[in-house]
Structures are given as C-alpha cells and as structure tokens.
Amino acid sequence: MPANGEEPAVAPAAPAPAPPPAEPPGGARAWWVWGIGVAVYFLAMFHRNGLGAAALEAQDRFDVGPAVLSLLPMLQLLVYVVLQVPTGLLADRVGPRASLTMGLVAMASGVALFALAPGIEAAIAGRVLIGLGDAVTFLNVIRLAALWFPRSRYALVSALTGVVGGLGQAASVAPLSFALHGMGWTGAFLLFSGITLLMLLLVLLVVRDRPGPAPDSGAHPPLRAWTAVREALAAHGPRLGMAHHAAVMPPFTTLGVLWGYPFLVEGVGFSSAAAGALLSVVGAGVLWISPLLGAFVGRRPGVRRPLATGLVALLAAAWLVVVCWPGGLPPAPVVVVVLVVSAAGSVIAPALSFDFARDGLPAERTGVASGLVNMSGFLTTVVVTVAAGVVLEAGGGFQAAFVPVTATTALAGALLAVLLWRRPRRGGAAR
After folding, report:
1. How many CA atoms lie within 13 A of 48 on its CB side?
2. Which regions of the chain are under pLDDT 50?
3. How far apart are CA 180 and CA 172, in angstroms?
4. What pLDDT does residue 194 have?
5. Domains of the chain by range and CATH?
6. CA distances from 38 to 110, 183, 311 (A)
7. What local confidence, expressed as pLDDT, does residue 16 receive?
8. If we measure between CA atoms, which residue out of 249, 410, 402, 221 comes closest to residue 329?
9. Where on the phi/psi map is residue 351: left (φ > 0), alpha (ψ -120 to 50), or beta?
10. Distances in Å between the alpha carbon of 145 and those of 142, 386, 389?
11. Which is the most buried residue in 29, 98, 307, 372, by most CB within 10 A?
12. Is 9 helix (H, G, I), strand (E, B) or coil?
C-alpha cells in the first residue's frame, strides 16, 4: 500500500474480444427462402436458353438471316459476362431481395418488349434487358445460401443451385415451343412475362436478406467498388474459385452452346438424332453428381484440394487425347468418355468453385467474389467458343479448333495447382 494511504491505481481491464458472429441456423425457413430464389434462377435460365425454340419464328418475324439472329443470344451473354462484377457489387450493397426484384423487373420488361417488338432493333433491346436481369440472379441466390445456411451447407446449396439452373436450361425448349404453336409469338412471350411478374410477387412476399435483424453496419461496412474488387482478389479463396471455374466450366459449355452438335455430326460421324440425344443424355445424366459432392465437401472440406486438382488433370488429359489423337479425331467410344468427363466437370464447378470463393470473406461481401468466379468461367467460354469458330472458318478441323479450350483448361489447371499446393492448409483447407 502506498505511504500516502491511497489505493493503488488499477489499470482498466482490456476489453474482451468480440465473439465470432453466429452462423446462420439454416432450417426449413432457409430452404423456403432459397427455394424462391432458385426458382428465379430457373426462370432466368429458361429465358436465357429458350430462344432456341423460337429461332425459326424469329427469323421470319424480323426478316433477318442467321448471322443477325445470332446477335440476340450473343449480346445477351455478353451483357451477362460484363455485368458480373457490377452486379456482385450491387448484391453486396443492397442485398439479394432488392437485387432479385430489380432483375425480375428487367427480365419481365425484356420478355414483354421481345413479344411486342416490331423489328430486330427492339428485339435486341429486349434481349439486352433479359441479360440485365439474368446477370443479377445467380449471384444473389448464392448470397442467400451464404446468409441463410451454415458454412458447412454452402457447397451443397451451391451445387443444388447449379442443378436447378441446368434443369431450367433443359426445360426451356418444350414449353416455349408448345406456347408458340398454341398462342402465337406475342401471346407466348407475354405469358412468360406474366409468369416472371408472378415470381416477382413471390420474392417480395417471401425472400428476406438474412434470418433475424440486420447485423451492425459497422461490422462489415460496404466498400467502394475498386476496394471491394481488390479485397476479393487479395483473398486466397476467390482466386482459387476463378482458376477452378476457368478450367472446368468451358469444355462442356462450349459444346453445349454451339460446337457439340457439329463436332459429333460432321467430325465424329454421329447421326443428327444420335448427336442431339447424346448431348442431352450426358448433360442430364451427370446432374446427380453435384449435390452429392456438395454434401460431402461440406462435411469434409479438406477433400477439395485433391479433388479439384485431380478433376482438372483428368479433364485436361481427356482433351489432350482429342486434339493429339493420331490420324484425326478419336473413335466414338473415346469421344463419349471425353463428353462424360467434361459434363461431370461442368456440374461439379458450382460445388467447388463457389465454395472456394466463400473462403476468407464475410458472408455480407461474397457478391463480388462470386461475380469474379462466374465471370472467369463465362469469359473463358466465350473466348474459346469464338476461337474455335475462327479456326473452323479458316479451314482447320475440330482437332485444331479445340486446341484453345484444351490450352485454357491446362493453363488454368496449372494455376489452380500452384495456388492450392504452394501453401499449407489452414483449418480444413483454408476455411
């Protein structure tokens, strides 16, 4: 005790560290909210791919040739790719509910404009609006998964999101074709514009950004655009997701979007019916892999590293077989195996790519990271699809035309391996 009798000064205790944020509970309400969100994604994929069923009618209605008509899906896809990062920023700033609402308004308006378009210019404007709405949907369904489900469920929900999108793509042709024949051009597209508005009502009634009250805005304040992009690129997880998506998504997507049918018919010698059936059966037959893998990865995140590198190595080897087969294209059984491996890679992409991107960032700021990952896959797909067309136009065969997609898969796979294996895992593969 001091001589003057005063109590010694006591240093103030250091504040206790803030507890880590509680994980979302998941449960029935989370599945219900996500279910409405993924139904929007189903509808977006329906609008994105349904034009194939209306191609002949569009050519007659707008009095244009195939070259001009091809601008409609290409511009829509270009809008989708270019807007991935901006829509990711929007998702992080205003939340999934507002973003999905704006996307549905854009899609409904675009489909209505396409229904009433008097000429090709208005039709192009309509498809651009559909592309604007489409660009918003996937990222925000993924954000709902991050905000409503515990981390261990994220890979599964991401995988299921991809599966529902694939079903939307596959289901687009028959209903639109039936409506076109039964109701005519204007009636069919106005019908699907009205369905889109009904989906908008469901989003407003059911979807909320997160369970419970909004978190303290100071915990994860919104960032400026360039700062948010730099934060995502600086984190290890988004870089892994970008490399993985660029490696595994383009091969089968390139075939499905444009070159699979000509490759099988003109290159390998399949009949038209057999080529179409093979692409459909292979694409649908591997969908079950994704949710099973997502559930497994959620329980054992450490398997992501060997699984991702093994898949990419197998995919690159399969396409090297195609482009290096002596004396021309490989026989049909080998081509079928390559198609199956490629299709499996494309459906596995959401389960791993977006799960990687979730690492190292708070759930409130995953929109930009998911946008970068999505953009890497789609941009690579556009590049290799156009490159294949240039090679074929110049007189090269399919082996030469598929060199670009083989090269991008191998290079992106090598980058992924470097990123995955150059540093030790932290807490279950950097979770």
Report:
1. 28
2. 10-11, 13-20, 216-220, 424-431
3. 12
4. 96
5. 27-210 (1.20.1250.20), 234-426 (1.20.1250.20)
6. 20, 28, 27
7. 47
8. 402
9. alpha
10. 5, 34, 37
11. 372
12. coil
Q: Specify the pLDDT at position 111.
A: 94
84-94 and 120-148 helices, crossing angle to 10°: 50
pLDDT confidence of residue 366? 66
The span from the CA of 265 to the CA of 316, in Å, is 23
Q: Where are the alpha helices (DSSP H) in 17-83?
A: 28-49, 55-62, 66-69, 71-82
Interatomic CA distance for residues 368 and 371, integer angstroms: 5
| Short-list 37, 198, 197, CA closest to 109 | 197
CA distance 246 to 248: 6
Structure tokens at 402: 């598929």
The encoded tokens of residue 70 equal 């091809």
Q: What is the reported pLDDT for 403? A: 93
Q: What is the pLDDT of residue 217?
A: 45
**How far is it, in rounded angstroms, from Cα 140 to Cα 296?**
24
* CA-derived radius of gyration, the chain: 24
